[in-house]
Amino acid sequence: MIESFSDPSVQRGLITAVLVGLTVPVLGCYVVLRGLAFLGDALAHIILPGVVVALLLGWPLIVGALLAGVIAALAVGAIARSTAIKEDTVIGVVFAGSLALGIAMLSMRGTYEEDLADILTGDLLSVSSGDLWLMAALGALALLTVLAFYKEFLVISFDRVLATTMQLPVILLDNLLMVLLAIVIVISLQAVGVALVLAMLVTPAATAYLLTRRLPAMMLIAASIGVGSGILGLYLSLSLGIAPGPSIVLVATAVFGVTYLLRHWRRALPQGGQAG
Amino acid sequence: MIDQHDVQAPPIVARALGARYDGDLALQDLTFEVQAGQRVAVVGPNGAGKTTLFKVIAGILDPTHGSIAIHGHGPGKHVCVGYVPQRTQVDLKFPVTVREVVMMGRVRDIGLLRWPNREDWEKVEAALKRVGMAADSDRRIGEISTGQQQRMLLAQAVAQEAQLVLLDEPLSGVDMPSQEAIFEILDDLRRDGVTVLVATHDLNLAAERFDQVMLLNRRIIAFDSPEQAFTRAALEAAYGGHLHVIERGERLAILADTHHEGRE
Description:
The structure holds two protein chains of two kinds.
Chain A: H1 8-34, H2 37-46, H3 48-57, H4 61-82, H5 87-106, H6 112-121, H7 129-148, H8 150-158, H9 160-165, H10 170-192, H11 197-211, H12 215-240, H13 244-268
Chain B: E1 12-21, E2 24-34, E3 39-43, H1 50-58, E4 65-70, E5 81-84, H2 98-104, H3 107-110, H4 118-130, H5 146-159, E6 164-168, H6 176-191, E7 195-199, H7 203-209, E8 212-217, E9 219-224, H8 226-229, H9 232-239, E10 243-248, E11 251-256
Parallel strand pairs in B: 3-7, 3-8, 5-6, 6-7
Antiparallel strand pairs in B: 1-2, 1-4, 8-9, 10-11
Helix pairs in contact in B: 2-5, 4-5, 5-6
């Protein structure tokens, strides 16, 4: 079992899992705090046509996904701002349409079923070293951008009225955050797949939210849980023969469940019941 | 970006100002001026347009008619306006401390791609001290009382170095000591020449603690010193039957049944 970690594809898978666990939950903190879970899930599915186009053209999947993600993130914001239709409805329309388009294009290929399975649940052990470098670069870019715009993202997430009163470029910052979300979703695509990206975005951040009430601490804890779940999930996947994507997500979910129960019990105890 | 700010011009000059809110004409034909350093109570029934007026002044909502100038320039070019919305709009579950919320007032001044420096933190500490919240600066915002939340938001406007501060219902749901603390801070701001507009339901406080009163019900019914503004005719024009005016010697005692929270 341990020797399989000397396999280069497993090593690349491990690095990918760590990369995903580190970057996605940090952006996930904004998703949790701003209630954007539906948007995050939709973005992951909206990316599908881009992935399929890349597959058909023989491009790296990540390039197609990134293009589709950025276009979709900007389009959803623009449509929602310009009509009376509520944003979640616009997201729903674009989400379902993109998913249909992606699957329709995919169904024209002979290897439809295998391709679809890989895209939906990820293919952690087939990450090429080229993909890995690209993911690392994108992840670093996303984290550095969060660091650079930390105070602006904090204000637009906490108090949009204040942001508007102070004449901050709110729409520009919103779009930037959307693009960053698209980037980390693309990074996690190969690790956990379209169907499970939401878990990496939301679950570690939600767990961290239960444990702290400071945003920097929340980001650090979320990233730690993400990395830990990535490593342990991959290990369990190899030793128990489970698909790696779902295995990682199940570990993260278990961490959330245990944390939730511990918090719940502590609060239920009369003397341990400090507000938090 | 440099704040367009003409110190000679009055803080607010409105001419035939009109604005829509949710499609309805919430403000009509408002013409008024506010002088520097004044403390103005904006009173009127629910739906009178108090919040809409504040949003227009803060540059959040564009007027549909007329014009408004803040220190000589259109709204939306100022970082000198501090707007403290109704407290119910603050997400108390958000993971930030009191100090971090006050620092948010400085974000625009600090500018993009920069982190707060020592001077910024000193301004934040000074603002916290000024509202008597220095000891609570590391507490999470969900842990403090409603009066303290209001003082924290005032400190944010102080840290922003706002010259014109708009407070929407800062006094509702706040206990007496916090109410006194808020007025002490407002007195302090007045000494610095900061202009303050306060939307309030409390007509008696408006009469006792403010230089000027704007009686609003989509239009300006009266805008004058409290003694001049609060006439029986003006109050009845603003509130209709929802008000009981009792003449007690020289003064009018006012009982309004508008204390419930309302959507505006």
